[in-house]
Design a protein that fits this description.
heterodimer, A: Rossmann fold, 7-stranded mixed sheet, globular, B: alpha/beta, Rossmann fold, 2 domains, two-stranded antiparallel ribbon, 9% strand
Chain lengths: 328, 346
């Protein structure tokens, strides 16, 4: 049996193993040095690899990402940390105008093998600017690869894959999942980027989720089973590239789908998924694709957070609305 | 810092380079001027969509390339075409961007010259990253990062100066203060005593130099490069110069500056004072001048020939470089565009 570790520890192990495997891998950001990051994800890296390999920077996110661009241009594989989702926004221009576009601008002559790690999304009772789901901005930007692990094993494997990837990756770490322990086999094969995984097979309906929304989707499927419905769960893992094949195969087999995501639903990744599934699976669908997402409001204060987040009940309600009476 | 006065008289504040070195510099100035004029002409003829001219700033353009070694990096902006060409990149390749072929016409790795930055000051951070990576690996690489006066108002300028100073990165920040950001004058960008003075706040040296004085700019930049190379970190150099042309052909400079002002700066032309000095020193005569002009005309003719041939663009290339391996979605979009084009052809 593989050892149990938290997602934070799994990511730390991935960084550590990548740094040991390749001298070009460098880690930097705010508080990632001696402190080990505010979530302790980079714990011990400066001590074990030295100040040249894991270091603190001045407090400036555009600076961090912009410097990573230059280092990636010059032979390094930077892995930078944006301390919190909304604190990545000062780096938005660097990410959208340069990280995403340099390979295309230079006709592939300058590729940027860098990873931007972002502790993201809510469910931790955080104050404002600490709980945003910012994936749509990145997913909308051609040139970025956007990953969101939901399990500790994937956090390890996908980060290893991201660091080895020739193109820039935005790596979204669901912070509410940082500290629960699960088995992680670090010797397992590195998962391919761009492939979703069926977490739970189901015959009646398919829940499509990623990152922090996978656990509530799985819990809802569990509850649906008690109520007599066999509901499956697809974990995207990779938002970009999007795995149409796996998602559509599941939806075609069940004829019913609900997309679950924390981000506000308007113009969201969930909207894109609903549209894609509808375009590709229309004749297999028994009901319109539903979305269970955050409301179209700024992320709420901690006391109101539970009303915002898609939970088991709301997911089950959406499943109930998939026109079952027509099939009966 | 000034070594040659407007009248071509040495100021005596430091020794001038040897006459043959200065003569070579003059040759480069003439080539840069001719390139600016040729590119402007190509815009008028509809061969180029746009050209941000550096006419009047040629001393800066020539000097920043001349002080670099092959192993160094240059980070230019959209106005630095002449500097890129002075670095050795084929002018036709550089200008294909402005013909609309692609966003960057040359291979940045070939001459260690980054793509021309269109957003302001963002590339300064990339320059710091290139320098810091070199330093971590113990490589002898200096990075010359160019920007204008307007860019010094951007947050990325501040972050780049600060990061470079904190990490002692081997970077030279070279600000060509040409007095206008499109139409907005320097006074609206900053009330600092000078842009070079901002260096104090970052704990690095700042040097103000007469940007129309080739030997002075060359000397100041060479000192900054040497400082970076020796591990002493970045320098901020501000060149006092002037954009003689409008921002681009789409701009109307008469709306925001006076004829007198432009004429005044014309009297401080970077070519004239070197020519006056070299002629006075007996190093440049009419024959020499003719040879230099002929060489620049050859270059201009080559640019015209190169740009007269419309290179075919490949719609497939839209999808080719976004990712090392195209996503399934891009592969399918490429297939539909191909089908669409085949329908058009049939």
């Amino acid at each position: 049996m593989a050892p149990k570790m938290s997602m934070a520890a799994a990511i730390n192990a991935a960084l550590r193993d990548a740094m040991a495997a390749d001298d070009a891998v460098v880690v930097f950001g705010e508080d990632v040095g001696p402190l080990g990051g505010v979530f302790r994800v980079t714990d011990g890296l400066t001590r074990d690899f030295g100040e040249g390999r894991c270091f603190d920077t001045p407090l400036a996110e555009a600076g961090i990402v912009g410097m990573a661009v230059g280092m990636a241009m010059n032979g390094m594989r930077p892995v930078v940390e944006m301390q919190f989702d909304a604190f990545a926004f000062p780096a938005f221009e660097q990410i959208t105008s340069h990280v995403a576009k340099t390979a295309n601008r230079t006709r592939g002559r300058v590729r940027l093998p860098l990873v931007i790690r972002i502790p993201y999304a809510g469910g931790i009772g955080g104050v404002e600017h600490h709980c945003d789901s910012s994936e749509a901005y990145y997913a909308h930007t051609p040139g970025l690869t956007v990953l969101a692990p939901a399990t500790n094993a994937d956090a390890y494997g996908l980060l290893r894959a991201a660091i080895e990837y020739p193109d820039p990756v935005v790596f979204l770490e669901p912070k509410k999942l940082y500290f629960a322990k699960e088995e992680v086999d670090v010797a397992a094969e590195v998962p391919p980027i761009g492939r979703a995984v069926v977490r739970r097979a189901g015959r009646d309906a398919t829940l499509i989720a990623y990152g922090p929304s996978v656990p509530p989707a799985l819990a809802a499927a569990e509850q649906a089973a008690v109520e007599g419905r066999d509901v499956g769960v697809v974990d995207l893992r990779s938002i970009v590239p999007f795995d149409d094949e796996t998602v559509c195969a599941e939806v075609r087999s069940t004829g019913r789908a609900v997309v679950v995501a924390e981000a506000p639903g308007f113009a969201s990744v969930a909207s894109e998924i609903a549209a894609r599934v509808t375009e590709r699976c229309f004749h297999h669908l028994e009901a319109p694709v539903h979305r269970v997402t955050g409301f179209d409001v700024p992320y709420p204060a901690p006391k109101l957070e539970r009303h915002f987040l898609p939970g088991v009940d709301r997911i089950l309600d959406a499943v109930d609305e998939l026109q079952w009476q027509d099939a009966a | 810092m000034r070594l040659l006065g407007h009248d071509g008289e040495p100021t005596g504040s430091a020794p001038l380079p040897a006459p043959d070195v200065l003569l070579d510099g003059y040759r480069r100035l003439v080539a840069a001027r001719r390139l600016n004029e040729q590119a402007q002409a190509l815009v008028r003829q509809g061969r180029l969509a746009v050209y941000p001219s550096s006419r009047g700033q040629e001393a800066c353009q020539v000097a920043c390339a001349a002080v670099l070694e092959e192993r160094d990096w240059l980070f230019p902006t959209y106005r630095d075409t002449a500097a890129i060409v002075a670095r050795g990149v084929d002018p036709v390749e550089v200008l294909t961007m402005l013909r609309g072929d692609w966003h960057c016409g040359y291979d940045p790795r070939e001459r260690r010259t980054a793509p021309q930055a269109t957003p302001l000051a963002t590339q300064l951070l990339h320059a710091v990253g290139v320098g810091h990576a070199a330093r971590l690996r113990g490589e002898d690489t200096v990075v010359m990062a160019l920007c204008g006066d307007g860019a010094t108002s951007e947050g990325d300028f501040h972050e780049a100066c600060n990061f470079a100073a904190v990490f002692a990165a081997p970077v030279v920040f070279f600000v060509q203060n040409n007095k206008y950001a499109i139409s907005v004058p320097l006074a609206r960008q900053s009330v600092a005593p000078s842009l070079a003075a901002k260096a104090d706040g970052y704990g690095m040296p700042g040097v103000l130099v007469d940007g129309n004085d080739l030997p002075a700019v060359t000397r100041v930049l060479a000192e900054a490069v040497a400082r970076a190379r020796s591990g002493d970190g970045p320098t901020l150099v501000e060149a006092d110069t002037y954009r003689m042309d409008a921002h681009t052909n789409a701009d109307d400079a008469t709306r925001y500056r006076t004829e007198d002002e432009v004429t005044g700066w014309g009297e401080r032309d970077p070519l004239t004072r070197v020519r006056t000095y070299l002629t006075g020193a007996g190093v440049l005569d009419e024959t020499g001048e003719r040879e230099i002009t002929a060489a620049s005309e050859d270059m201009a003719a080559q640019v015209r020939r190169g740009l007269a041939v419309e290179a075919p663009v490949d719609p497939d290339e839209l999808f080719a470089h976004v990712y090392a391996t195209p996503t399934p979605q891009l592969t399918s979009q490429r297939a539909s565009l191909r089908a669409e084009l085949e329908d058009e052809d049939s």
